[in-house]
Amino acid sequence: MATTTTTPASTATSSAATVPITASSGSHGKKTDLQASYQALTVGLQTLYQPDDVFHMKSGTYGRDELIGQFQKFVGLAEQTKKAHIAWRDAVQVEHVFELQVRTLRQGVRGIVTVRFGKDGTQLMQFGFAPGKQPKKTAATKAEAVTKTKATRVARGIKGKKLRRPLRDKRHRPRAHPPPRRQRRRPTASRNLRRVAARLGPRETTARPEAR
């Protein structure tokens, strides 16, 4: 509870009266709302209280103009912060635009020094670039890779040089022409008679009667 000895603004020459004033701290939302609340507080003190009014608080005794000076100082600092924030945002935007311009130059320099010293060269650290790391394969990883490679070769039917050589030689070997076929002679009538006679076997020949 804070009290003040105040003189009403309408009767400046009247005697001082003690009027209790409650000082409470409330939570404000945005910073602009906080600044506006202090500006309103300053206007209220200037309008409804006299310069010789005194406010008694736990932290001490303050005059009206002393409080107004403190509140106006805070409002001024808030204005400076606002201007500084706007200037900072403008500076960040300028920085971002210029960084996009020099980014390509940095990438070009990195490509040049990488070609000269290698991807894993320690000299890259002197230019601010992190050298590439060589992947380390364990024995289990190598064995698994060999097994997968063999399975892939079997599935695709891939053969090595030694197995491909006989197939390649056989593929490029000149084709041998088959020998000409012998033409079978057509059997004549006399030959057919001999074959038939051979099958029937020898027979007794009967003499034909002579013609008279």
Ranges where pLDDT stays below 50 over 5 or more residues in a row are 7-28
* SSE string, helices as H and strands as E: EEHEEHHHH
- Helical fraction: 40-55%
Q: Radius of gyration from the CA trace?
A: 58 Å
Give the neighbour order of strands across the main sheet: 2-1-3-4
Fraction in beta strands: 5-15%
Largest sheet: 4 strands, antiparallel
Q: Total strand count, please?
A: 4
* Shape assignment: rod-shaped
Mean pLDDT: 77
What distance separates the N and C termini?
Answer: 183 Å
Question: Total number of helical segments?
Answer: 5
Brief characterization of the structure:
By secondary structure, the protein is an alpha+beta fold. The chain has five helices and four strands.
Would you write up a description of this structure?
With 212 residues, the protein is of the alpha+beta class. The protein has helices at residues 31-48, 64-117, 139-156, 161-172, 189-200; strands at 2-6, 17-21, 54-57, 60-63. It has a domain at 2-87. The protein is built from five helices and four strands; from the N terminus they run ββαββαααα. A four-stranded antiparallel beta sheet has the order 2-1-3-4. Strand 3 (54-57) and strand 4 (60-63) form a beta hairpin. Helix 1 (31-48) runs antiparallel to helix 2.
